[in-house]
Fold this sequence. Notes:
- The protein is α+β, with helices and mostly antiparallel strands.
- It has helices spanning about 10-15, 20-35, 50-55, 65-75, 115, 130-135, 140-150, 160-165, 175-195, 225-230, 245-260, 265-275, 280-290, 300-310, 315-320, 335-340; strands spanning about 5-10, 45-50, 80-85, 85-90, 95-100, 105-110, 125-130, 155-160, 200-205, 210-220, 320-325, 325.
- Helix content is about 40%, strand content about 20%.
- The model is unreliable at about 225-240 and about 315-360 (pLDDT under 50).
Amino acid sequence: MEKNYRVTKSNKLICANYDLSVQEQKIILTLASMVQPEDTEFKEYEFKIKEFMQLLGISTKTKYKEIPKITKDLMKKVFEVKEGKDILQLSWLSSVRYKTGEGIVILKFDSNLKPYMLDLKELYTSYKLDNILSLKSKYSLRLYELLKSNYFKKKVTIKLEELKDMVGANANYLKVYADFKNKVIFQAQKELAEKTDISFEFEEVKTGRKITGIKFYIKTNNDRMSTEHLLLTTSENEVSATLTESEEENLIKKIIDIMHDSKITALEAKKLNDTSNGDINKIKEKYVLFQNSNNIDSVVGWMLRAIKDDYRVSKEKVEAGKFNDYEQRDYDFDKLEKKLLGWDNNEKDVVGEEYQQLLRN
Length: 361
């Protein structure tokens, strides 16, 4: 079991309504971290019983018999995912096998989870397994995933009853809002700040005198944020605070259009948009430079640096006909823009969460 493994899930799956114990969630998320990006089918994932006991916080051999009970209960758990107007009921696992005498347990995801965990093209969230392994509250774990999936927005408002359904907080002892705030919100706020790469502040949304929602302000926990994440994540100062969500979504779609040859995701487009402060012309300009550069491994990483450092073609190199050791082209920028946006093709592009690559003539 490797703490640096990454959990990657569709945002639809993260926002589904389900109620799992902290042990059950850790089983599912550890299993998810073993799925590889190139996998096209779920495999059987093998654990040593000793590691499994550590994962579940079972410290003595006398409690060994609890493990089959935990996995059996997990096999029975059904949850729901919204698909447009439809509600899809799903199970987490298709099978659990105990290798008697070998100290091994083998688990396999239900195949119906494939659209939410394999070959993801819609919005998804990825984080290190290490962020959730030390969390003690099942609500903290769920709230971490929900806020992590909205991290790029920096804030999110969730209706109170929907929030309770998503984190599985419908027990009688949480019916009173004050109890919910203390046992779910405050507990998660403390745990996330101490043990994960994000933290949050919140304010209550009222309708009249009644509290009907929670507005979360999501922040980077710099003490735990990895160097990799800091490189690819824009700071709060870089986010344009003047755009509505609808305007931002339109800009993200335009960026995906412009960079359709590079097959970027909506989340990557969001990072570019934030870094450029919504300046679509700056992104077009830097993408032209990228297309004429050599030996670049990460398109998005290069673009982020180009925007932040304002890469330009120097006058000397333009006059010499060179830039980064390649020939400088003469551009008709109106024509280039049409080409980048696909307007010189007769096909209709499909962008956004269900983005497909344009077929080029």
